[in-house]
Amino acid sequence: MTHRAPLTNHHTDGTPCPPEHKHTASGKPLHPDCPGRAYSQAVCTCGTWTFKDRGKGYVNESRKRHVASHANPAAP
Ligand SMILES: [Zn+2]
Ligand SMILES: [Zn+2]
User: Fold this and answer.
1) All residues with CB under 5 Å from ion ligand 2
2) What are the start and end residues of every segment in region (Disordered) (predicted)?
3) Using one digit for the tens of pLDDT, what is the confidence trace for 29-41?
């Protein structure tokens, strides 16, 4: 069974920060309705794994590692 853990971005109040909310390289919001990205989150379809952190790259790395662990359960 294949699982996926899509990454989503969120504002401080927990509402989703959709892909159309663009940010500058330093993370400053360019969309008028965007209060700024507060954190990124990944939720796996296996239902037992979620990961949340301010660092988008860190979340992305963790979710890839987790999804890979489903594909190869023997991996450390
Ligand atoms: Zn936003
Ligand atoms: Zn999983």
Assistant:
1) 3, 44, 46, 49
2) 1-32, 55-76
3) 999 999 999 999 9
